[in-house]
Fold Cytochrome P450.
Amino acid sequence: MPQRPPARASLPETVLLAATVFLPTAAQGAILRRPRMVRLAAGCDANRRAHRTLAHLRRRHGEGPVSVLVPGRRVLLLLSPQDARHMFTATPATREKAGGLHHFPPDGALIGPTESRPEQRAFNEAVLDRDASAHRLFPALTPRIPEEAQALLTLVGSSGRPLHWEDFSAAFRRITRRIVLGDAARDDHRVTQLLDRLRADADWLTLRKPKERVRDAFLARVRAYADSAEPDSLAALVATAPCPESAEPLGQIPHWLFAYDAVSIAAYSALALLASHPEHAARVRTALDDADPAQPATADALSLLRACILESLRLWPIPPAIHRDTTAETTWHNGTTTPADTTVVFYRSFFHRDPQHLAHADHFEPDAWLDGRNDDNWALAPLSHGPAMLPGQDLVLYTAATLLAALLRDHKALLLLPRRPLAPPLPLPHTIDHTSLRFALTPK
Ligand code: HEM
């Protein structure tokens, strides 16, 4: 039977896609968020414009995937959950990511050569305890996270000014260093600065040469922590998980360090959602009040907060898209076929807010993560989906939920900026500038 190619975006549609989807997404930074660009994007709600463009493509071409002419590349935009399911149950990461992440030492799971990816994946799953009901570090982390929350509350209280993103982010980075590298790294801002420089270059893909000296200095510090790893850190678990040297176990550490930045953005945005939805904040507080004072939070409070983090990532996914390169000829749900080495794009920001596949697309609905409404919905991938689901998801949600629990236990968060709550009757924006959010944290 002759093979049928997917529908193709016309020239005006390609220009519209470049202007409203590809360029704004790249400008905000995939690996290190660029605050000025994030602010600009939020100012014009860039993701809403991208959403309109993709909805227009679907009206015009139907639910099948649409191919886009990008110089030197075959790009395919998915527009239906059936095709998303197909993408998530196959193939590894894209060339753009690989190009950018080559700035890092040595090879991380997202960029490792294809032949060592299964070993790297298995190694990551082992260290991050993918299949356990709770990560083995939770007991050790449980006091450290509230300690950092307390330090943050003291800082905000003594400064007499509202909670700013810079303070929250600095506290979160301390938590991250303690989890990944150990307590000795708590105040090692230098290691984070070096990583930020590598990340900033990585966002230019192959257009910038990797900075060898920065890379070496960063790696030397990471090695030093790994060589004398504290028992209650991810660095210590590196030595315990099976991994051939060729799969570069140490090379996974930079990825864990920088991936935690997305967790801090999701947690801070979730705080804004809770401050804007007092009914949900009251439920969290009631569950926290029931907690044993020796424990930071009850299971109920933590599961509701975990759902709030997932909801924050659904409403404002980081990054907005997941890309894959197909490794074989692929047939999509409408019978169209694409050759191997096609870059497939799942634009999360479109799917997660698509009323066609989600009744609560534009509402904050944390309960949908608890009562099964979001189960098996392939339009949703806040932490990816299927076999490539982020192996550290439990650690991610636990860290963020435990921090929010510690902040909200004795304090109320009042959203000061933006001045209007992120709640009805105003529609929730598709783009959020987390750096501009401000909160008054007042004792209960
Ligand atoms: C909110 C925070 C995070 C988000 C939204 C996120 C999201 C993602 C996404 C979308 C992928 C690509 C999956 C795919 O291609 O389908 C990924 C991969 C990965 N993430 Fe995260 N991530 C986060 C935090 C973390 C953290 C904190 C860690 C480690 C401690 C981590 C470890 C990994 C690893 C190891 C992979 C590669 C998985 C593989 O090779 O299959 N992530 N993450």
In short: Residues 229 and 236 are 5 Å apart (CA to CA). Residues 92-103 have pLDDT under 50 and may be disordered. The radius of gyration is 22 Å.
